[in-house]
Structure formats: structure tokens, C-alpha cells
Design a protein that fits this description.
Two copies of one chain form a homodimer. The first copy, chain A, is of the alpha/beta class and about 350 residues long. Chain A has ten helices and 15 strands.
């Protein structure tokens, strides 16, 4: 493989605040051959995910901080070029932790088979991939939704949020979204089928929250944290469940909470007897063996829509990531960097 | 009964900050006869509890605010004077919601039998009463303690805290307390058998927390909220459980949290994947039918100690309550206002 060149995107410097393109650098190397048990894959679709922003801080988080100079990680859909693992042969389509690069060498056991008969390639990064499992397992394992309950979802136009809401609807719940513009709110209702969606930039946000469900909310699927979540918490019903999936409001470090907020936050936990759970998707691995079957069924019957913001070309990986952090995506952000052979 | 005079303590005005005696007023009435299904009881022991302070605010809480002029509620141990309920006869000893007064007329079905063969009278307001059930059911239902885990308890010298810690020890856990002075910390370790106790007034509080359990804490039984709880939260282990039982630090409205605290608090929920649950004891009614049996056994074999701060006389009810709010009690605060006939 010494004649195949691999471009890879590396971490050049820690951002302060909202990242820009100079956080990254592009390196080039020759593609290595797989060792025993490994597979060499060509990345076709690259995923960019909000949790990466968290890894850019040099402080304790749920994954180790990114080291300067290191390859940026990320889920990919790829095609096997050369295999030294019994389960795989050249040409197979796989979901792997392939990273932001053209070619990846990974352990064969880290790969999951992609079945395009069942759902299009993109779906295996979205509803049937880590994104889908985050929404599905998070909502079910921590939220315990019952038909007729009301769920509120922040970052409702985003990859995980739009799925969490659609899954809630498929389970017979009433679902309200929170998003960052009128246009997004329209998409959340019209495309993703939420019952209502509220613009958190509105000056009447707290009133709108109340109006959308005057009796309050049973479940809050939280992707943002900060002031938005503080406002939602006060609208939770007795014995409400808050699922802390992401905190994108604070990933870049800006916020403007009132000093009394934490006291108030603790107070509502007790007054409303809330259950608040933080989780990351890997905590819930294998909790829901029915996941692929169930969500593939919903995709087929239209209860869950495959909605992506698609970019084309390796050069679009960084812009796609930056756009997602600024909330300029709808559904899952995916970059197609090659076609299957 | 027209010749028996009942003194009762009423709510005279809402306090701002730490309450003083003029929050209360004493009223006198003639004792009423019980109607059908009711019992007339003479209060022997009166309980004063921190949750009362919460009821003095005129705002939504987990119980309705106290109304000005109304009788102060509270658990009591009493003796039946006259019964119009089939389960009870004159002379029976009962635990009832008798309030801060000499005599109470209550529904017979609200009374619980007190068995002095099994444990002394005081125990039925403490370990075998609402206080004990709060500690027991809260720790078991929300904390799911496993032998070998480390539990940290705030207000560890208080009624609920001291029991939560002793129950943790009885279940094979390592238990660390938090209390408000050296003397209290000594009591928590020497009397209640905690493995360690930390003074939250110390300037090295956060370091002391870390030193007492360098690997962190599995369970936090929280009675105080505020800055103390914020410090503890950062020391929780992955998948730690926080049981929010009380928030005495904010009952009187003073606090001094940093504006960034809520963001940080939300961050640690996600990073450490914490489960935080607010509860009040009535949520857990009948969850643990084995409660009396189990705790009476621990009282008998000394694994749980009956430790009270006892006051004598009706006039001591208000001072006992104020002393408890200032943390000047150890274990359960009880006022003996009469002897059994």
C-alpha cells in the first residue's frame, strides 16, 4: 500500500471559545498494512459529533482530552480494502471508529456490518448508528417513557435531539422541542413531527415553555445544559426525569447564569422529586439488543425519518464540524469523502 | 372535656432569614371531644423537624406553605384519652400527627401503635419513626448501597443524617460524615460509628473530602444542599448516586455560590454520569415493609443507637426548634411535654 496516500486531520491547538479552522492541521502519511486481526478500510462517510468539542478542553471529562498533534477521532462508514480478520473480506461495508482521514487501520472486532438492504448507508451513522443508539437507549433506559407522557427535547433539530423526539412520538408520547430559530422550529414540527417547538432565543421563552405544556413535562432529554435547562427544570412535573445527554451550551465556555441558580436547581430537585441522570452512550452498550430491529422498522414505516445535513469532500469535514457547533445543521451531519468501489 | 385546656403553638409571622421566637404565638382552647372515627390524644413527646422551616416560606414547595394563624404541625407520641375508633382504647400509646400542642384530636386511622416492649418511646419518633424511615427508605430506594461502597452523609450529627450513616455501616459500607464543628465530628465518629467525619467550616474542606476517600464516593446522602453539596458532587465516583433528602443550607435563604456553579454542577452530572434523586419520605411510604423489623433489630444489637437531644416542657418546643435549625442538636430533637398516665 506504499503508493496510497492518507490525508488525516489532526489537533493543532486548543480553542478558547468557539473553535475555528486553525484548531486543526492536515497531515499526510502512507497507508499502513493491517497486522493480524486488523482491517484496512477506506472511509466513505465521516461523522462529526458535538462531544469532540468537549475533548478539546484540557480537563477531566468523560473521555480523555485530545492530545495536540493527534488524529481527530470519529465514527465512519467504510469499505474494507484488505483484511487480516476472519469476519471481514475486501469490499465489505462496515461502521468503524475510522477518524477524520481517508484510510483507517482498525481491529476487525471494532467493526459493525452495514446492511444496505435494510437502510441506506447514511442511516448507519445516524438512526442506526451511535447517534440513534444515544437517543434510543438514553430515552428508554433513563426516561422510562410511557404512552401519553410529555417529553421535551433540547437541540431538537440536531442529530440526537431530532431522533429522541421521533422515538418519543413512536412510543406514543407528546413531544415538544427546543431549537434556536423559527426556521428550525418549523423543521422540528413539520419534518420531525414534534407536537410543538419553542425558540429559546425568544424573550418569552419561559412563558412559551409553560404554554406548550401547561401541566409541565414528564421527561426532559437535555442536549444543551445552561440557562435553557435551568428554565426547563422549573417546568418539570412531580417525579419528572431529566436525561443529561449533552451540554453543548457550555462546550465552548460561554454562559451567563444567575449566582442563585444552583441553589434554585437543587431546590427543584427536592420540591419536584426529580431524577436526573447523566449518561454517555457507551454506558448503555448492549442494554437494548432490539435497537437495530426496532429503529429499522420505524425508518421503514416512516415514524423515524433519515434526515442528514450532507457535505461532500474531505475538505468539508472541518467546515461541517464548525457549522454543527454553531447549530447550522439539521439532523445528522455527515461528510461523504468517497464512493464505495 | 370542657375543663381541659389545650395550649397550642401557632404560626404568627413569616421569618426572613433565621427564625426567632416571635415567628410563633401561643393560643389556648378547650379540648374538643372526638367525633366518630376520631381519637383524642394527649401528646407526650413532640418532634421538631427541619422541613417546617421550608413550610414557612410563602412559595411552592413539596408541602403547602403554612398559613398565618394556623397550628404548627409535627409528629408526636401520644396517649389515647378517649376513642371513637375501633382500633384504639383509652391508655393506648400511639404515634400521630399531633402537632405542637398538649392535646390532639386526629382520625384513628392516622395513628400507629407504639410498642414499648420493642423499643423506648423516644425511638418511635426517631429510628422507628418518620426520621428513621426517611434515612432507611431514602438510602435503600435511591442509593442502592452495596457492601464495600463508600457513602458520604451531610448533617451527619443530625437526626436523619446520623441514622443514614449508621444504616450504611450496618449494610457493610464505609461511611464518611460532614458536620459543622470539631465536637460534632467527634460525636459522629465516636457515638455514631462513622469511619470519618469532616468539618465543613474548615478552610481545607475540599482537601479533607478528598483525603477521607481518595477514590471518591459512591453515594451522597444530602441533607444540606448549597456550597457543601457542590463540593461533594465533584468528588463523586463514576455512576455515583446523590440522594437529595434536605437542603437545610438554603431553608433560611442565605448562600454564596459562584455564578458558574450551576454550569459546573451540570457538567459533573454528565462527566461522572451521576444519578441525582430528590425525595420526601411520603413518596416512599410502604416501599419497605421490613423497616420496623430491621431497624428494631439494629437498635437491639447496637448497630443503630438511639441518640436524642431531649428537652423537657411545653415551653421548650420553640427553643428546641430554633436550636435545631442552628445545628445545636445531636441526633433527633424531642421535647417531652407530659408523662404517660
Amino acid at each position: 500500500m506504499n503508493d496510497i496516500v492518507n490525508r488525516r486531520i489532526c489537533f493543532a491547538q486548543r480553542p478558547s471559545g468557539q473553535p475555528t479552522a486553525d484548531v486543526f492541521a492536515i497531515a499526510v502519511n502512507e497507508v499502513a498494512l493491517p497486522s493480524d486481526g486488523q482491517i484496512l478500510c477506506r472511509n466513505l462517510l465521516v461523522s462529526v459529533d458535538p462531544y469532540l468539542r468537549l475533548k478539546m478542553h484540557d480537563r477531566e471529562s468523560y473521555t480523555p482530552p485530545l492530545e495536540i498533534g493527534k488524529q481527530i477521532p470519529g465514527g465512519t462508514i467504510a469499505q474494507v480494502v484488505s483484511s487480516r480478520h476472519d469476519d471481514w473480506k475486501a469490499g465489505d461495508l462496515v461502521a468503524i471508529p475510522g477518524g477524520w482521514q481517508n484510510y483507517a487501520v482498525v481491529p476487525g472486532k471494532s467493526a459493525t456490518r452495514v446492511d444496505t438492504e435494510r437502510a441506506p448507508l447514511e442511516a448507519w451513522l445516524g438512526p442506526l448508528g451511535m447517534t440513534g443508539y444515544t437517543a434510543y437507549a438514553g430515552l428508554l433506559s433513563m426516561g422510562h417513557p410511557k404512552a401519553g407522557e410529555t417529553i421535551i427535547v433540547s437541540a431538537a433539530a440536531g442529530a440526537v435531539g431530532s431522533l429522541a423526539g421521533q422515538i418519543g412520538k413512536a412510543l406514543g408520547c407528546r413531544v415538544v422541542g427546543i431549537a434556536g430559530s423559527d426556521t428550525k422550529c418549523k423543521t422540528v414540527v413539520e419534518t420531525f413531527g414534534f407536537d410543538a417547538c419553542i425558540d429559546y432565543r425568544s424573550s418569552t421563552f419561559e412563558d412559551d415553555l409553560r404554554a406548550a405544556s401547561p401541566d409541565g413535562y414528564d421527561i426532559y432529554f437535555d442536549n444543551v445544559g445552561g440557562q435553557i435547562s435551568f428554565s426547563v427544570q422549573k417546568q418539570m412535573k412531580l417525579f419528572g426525569r431529566i436525561i443529561v445527554c449533552g451540554l453543548i451550551s457550555q462546550y465552548s465556555g460561554q454562559n451567563d447564569l444567575d449566582p442563585k441558580s444552583l441553589d434554585e436547581y437543587m431546590r427543584w430537585i427536592l420540591v419536584r422529586r426529580l431524577a436526573i441522570r447523566g449518561f454517555i452512550v457507551s454506558d448503555l452498550a448492549r442494554n437494548h439488543p432490539e435497537f437495530h430491529e426496532t429503529v429499522a422498522g420505524w425508518l421503514k414505516n416512516g415514524q423515524v425519518r433519515l434526515e442528514t445535513t450532507l457535505y461532500y469532500g474531505f475538505d468539508q469535514i472541518i467546515p461541517a464540524f464548525l457549522a454543527m457547533l454553531e447549530g447550522r445543521n439539521t439532523g445528522k451531519s455527515i461528510i461523504r469523502i468517497a464512493e464505495a468501489a
